[in-house]
Amino acid sequence: MLELRTLSKCFGGVQAVRDVSFAIEPGEIRGLIGPNGAGKSTLVNLISGLLRPTGGEIVLDGRSMTGLRADQCARNGIARTFQNLRLFSSLTVEQNIDVARQAGHDPALIDAALVEFGLTRHLARPAGALAYGDQRRLEIVRALALAPKLLMLDEPAAGMNEEETAALGQSLEWVRDAADCALLVIDHDLKFIMTLCHRIAVMDMGAVIASGDPAEIARNPEVIRAYLGDAGGDDAPQPTELVH
């Protein structure tokens, strides 16, 4: 579905993304983790067309997306949410979704998604008046209204409690099945990522340092050094905690 070929991005003398190559299969839920500043959000910005790569290629479903604008990427099947919410806060929930729904092709899917994410009772409310978790869920449904082939979620579980996070994971599995799209999920909640994702890529200093299933990632010494060690000391999550 998605293939990245030695993708790179430089900001002046800083190389934020370095020769990143991996593929996401149709229907896959891929996790992307790494310490702060590893280049995860920059990578998503490159894939979604918000940034132009310095080098390399982005291929979606056999077609090059390299250098396309964000609106062109969206129309070709790449949708995303943001680490910092970007809703139209003064518009209602329904109006937020209608902005994206015009480009989509399956109104019945969005109606079902509103039910799945518990938003039907909020359709007439301004998006800015929703609880934080509902705003996160609204942003996901709005992205889904674009009828994407690839849905990228940047910190979708941020600010959610354990119960909300578990429900979100179930809803994202529903999205994968109902919308027939692949997902790329960035999140700092490692248990959420390890439970949800089929495979995980780990970034550090702009490069992918490991890729594999959750059990492989949890045992990888480079991951432990670069990512888990950042949590610090005896309270740092241990690899076995991330698998179970």
Automatic annotation (TrEMBL):
Gene Ontology terms describing biological process: D-alanine transmembrane transport; L-alanine transport; L-isoleucine import across plasma membrane; L-valine import across plasma membrane
One Pfam short name: BCA_ABC_TP_C
InterPro entries per record: AAA+_ATPase, ABC_AA/LPS_Transport, ABC_transporter-like_ATP-bd, ABC_transporter-like_CS, BCA_ABC_TP_C, P-loop_NTPase
Assigned keywords, A-Z: ATP-binding, Nucleotide-binding, Transport
CDD domains, sorted: ABC_Mj1267_LivG_branched (cd03219)
Gene Ontology terms for molecular function: ATP binding; ATP hydrolysis activity; L-isoleucine transmembrane transporter activity; L-phenylalanine transmembrane transporter activity; L-valine transmembrane transporter activity
GO cellular component terms, A-Z: plasma membrane
Signal sequence segment: none
Domain ABC transporter: residue ranges: 2-230
PANTHER family cross-referenced by the UniProt entry: AMINO ACID ABC TRANSPORTER ATP-BINDING PROTEIN, CONSERVED COMPONENT OF ABC TRANSPORTER FOR NATURAL AMINO ACIDS-RELATED
Protein name: ATP-binding cassette domain-containing protein
